[in-house]
Give the backbone structure.
Amino acid sequence: MRHRPECGVLSIAGRWHVAVVLVLVLVLLLMSGSGSAVLAQTAATTMTATTVATASVQGQALASKSGCLSCHGLVHTQVGPGFAQVAARYRDDAGAPEHLAAKIRSGGVGIWGRLIMPRQPQVSEADAALLAKWVLSQPSPP
Ligand code: HEC
């Protein structure tokens, strides 16, 4: 048989795989023995992250359905301020959720410039509260 160096490389790579899988299995076995609390915690963390992500997706869907995104960008100013800018402005304002929820329905002018935000009567009070929370949860602009 002729010696083919690439075969050797392949078989080392193959053994590496086996070793990695073995280590993983060992870790899993150890965890299931003594670390079921760790597993439960990991599951809980994953669930919290999923809930937060779901809230953010719902907020965006609601904003889109309510027509907010035709004037507001998520980050930068379009017609109205970017929602990340709104979040940054009210970050230390404990009354912001109620204030903005009311503002979303009544509209306004003069806080961000000379353009008017029209009233949004199609938005229910409950949806306005959700939208205000979602707007305030936007990460700071880069
Ligand atoms: C026709 C364009 C337009 C639409 C539609 C619109 N906005 Fe606005 N929005 C504006 C403008 C312009 C401002 C700035 C008003 C100001 O300077 O006081 C603003 C301001 C805001 C503010 C900041 C208010 C403040 O007091 O700082 C929030 C929060 C907001 N909009 C949320 C929303 C949400 C949520 C929706 C959808 C239900 C929406 N907007 C729909 C144009 C719009």
Observations:
- The domain at 35-136 is CATH 1.10.760.10 (Cytochrome Bc1 Complex; Chain D, domain 2).
- The chain has one domain: 35-136.
- The two ends are 61 Å apart (CA to CA).
- The mean pLDDT is 83.
